[in-house]
Specification:
The chain is mostly helical. The protein folds into three domains: 57 residues, no CATH class; 279 residues, Orthogonal Bundle (Fic-like fold); 83 residues, Arc Repressor Mutant, subunit A. It has 21 helices and five strands. The chain has a three-stranded mixed sheet. Strands 4-5 form a two-stranded antiparallel sheet. It is globular and about 85 Å long.
């Protein structure tokens, strides 16, 4: 077929009455293959032809990743309206001057940061296939207990790295930094003794098989990935959240480290976010939300696709529009999770304060304890746990709980050598109005 004939065919396809509205929607809102095959097409136009043509149209507004695959394929994505809306919301909430960041940075907001980091540290390891006892690991982090298993130690290392994200972000990303992150993550971990399951490091689970590249070539690819994150290669106008996803995907595909490429990549993403003035991206529970997506626990109303099934359209190219859109929607879900937690805590604080005696002034840490005690009468509180949850010194945590016991809200018990504080039996009656508001 000559060029003139090819042009004629293309123009005919674009002018088909059935294809024009589909093309409009596919470029503005994106259509997956499954969605396309449900649409009626004019006689003579196959779904495969339409799929290829729609990809070509989106490709005119594509952002290209600078590293081709081992097979030489180029990866690109477009930004449909849904993705643009997500990017706008991410920018609104995740920049250093955002209200969300200021709320979390406030002394009363530290509890949100601690909760988010606990969940994120566990989920970060889970996505790399490590089988974590969630309750056990959560108690270890919240109460400052020593790790007892290789899984505990890995989670603790990840949590401590989250706490030190500002320090880690002092220099640009590089293979050396990546190796240092790997060393910190695995320090003291019996890697051979870890309980492992399936690895989920990328939305579409595409990766480079190990052993197909020399160490030198892999090091070169790792350097280019870091150059891309640092803005030395690639599109300088690429949105921060989009580039963050591409960083995760590149690490998941190339596997430049001996192990835990997904976990290290997520720490690299946090460093990248802090350096790009998007600190909230550094502590959002994105890994935890991604884990829920993998488990099929997110409704299609908040994350459009329940799985990513790429269908080739243009030879030698991979379109990742659906991948990127899904990743951005996962970030937005994580933002909303934190916002809901903040609002819930604010309402709990207000309800507890209103229920207290007029002459009783408790601080936000003590109000948080009472809110939990009212909704969970079987709850137990320890000084170390309270200290870690609110990032205060031991004496302050001790004073908080002793005062609640002196006021008759908690009962102090001694178990072994430790003080345990439990809700008084009449706490719900004393604060009945607050209980109604919290439940």
């Amino acid at each position: 077929m000559s060029k003139d004939e090819s042009l004629e065919v293309t123009l005919r396809l674009l002018q088909e009455a059935s294809l024009a509205p589909i093309a409009h929607e596919a470029v503005r809102d994106y259509l997956s293959w499954d969605e396309l095959v449900e649409r009626p097409l004019s006689a003579g136009i196959s779904a495969a032809e339409a799929w290829k043509l729609l990809a070509v149209l989106r490709r005119f507004d594509a952002t290209w990743f600078p590293i081709p695959t081992l097979a030489g394929e180029r990866f690109w994505y477009a930004l449909p309206r849904e993705a643009v809306r997500c990017l706008q919301e991410i920018e609104h909430h995740c920049r250093a001057d955002s209200l969300l960041h200021k709320t979390v940075e406030d002394r009363e907001g530290h509890r949100f940061l601690v909760r988010s980091r606990v969940r994120e540290a566990i989920a970060t390891c889970e996505l790399d296939g490590i089988q974590i006892d969630y309750e056990r690991a959560g108690r270890m982090l919240q109460e400052g207990r020593a790790p007892q298993t290789p899984e505990d130690r890995l989670v603790l290392n990840s949590y401590q790295m989250l706490e030190d994200i500002e320090g880690l972000a002092q220099e640009p990303l590089s293979p050396t930094v990546g190796s240092q992150l790997y060393s910190r993550l695995t320090e003291g971990v019996d890697v051979a003794g870890l309980r492992r399951g399936p690895v989920t490091t990328n939305l579409a689970a595409t990766r480079n098989p190990d052993g197909l590249m020399s160490d030198r070539d892999l090091e070169s690819v790792f350097q280019t990935i870091c150059d891309y994150a640092n803005g030395d290669v690639g599109d300088p106008l690429e949105p921060v959240a989009a580039k963050g996803y591409m960083l995760l995907s590149a690490m998941a595909y190339w596997h430049p480290l001996p192990d835990f490429n997904g976990s290290v990549a997520r720490h690299m993403l946090r460093i990248f976010a802090v350096r790009r003035d998007y600190p909230v991206l550094g502590y959002l529970p994105m890994s935890q939300v991604r884990h829920r997506w993998v488990q099929g626990q997110l409704d299609s109303g908040v994350v459009r696709y329940q799985h990513i099934d790429r269908r080739p359209a243009i030879e030698g190219e991979i379109e990742g529009t659906a991948d990127l859109l899904t990743s951005l929607q996962i970030v937005v879900v994580a933002i909303h999770d934190v916002l809901r937690l903040i609002e819930k805590s604010r309402l709990e604080d207000r309800a507890v304060q209103e229920a207290l005696d007029a002459d009783t002034e408790l601080n936000y840490r003590q109000r948080s304890v009472l809110a939990r005690a009212m909704t969970r009468p079987s709850a137990e509180f320890q000084i170390r746990q309270h200290q870690h949850a609110h990032r205060v010194v031991y004496s302050t945590a001790r004073a908080d709980l002793f005062e609640l016991a002196d006021l008759g809200y908690l009962r102090k018990e001694i178990r072994g050598k430790a003080f345990i504080f439990v809700p008084e039996e009449n706490l719900r009656e004393r604060l009945a109005g607050a209980v109604d508001q919290l439940t």
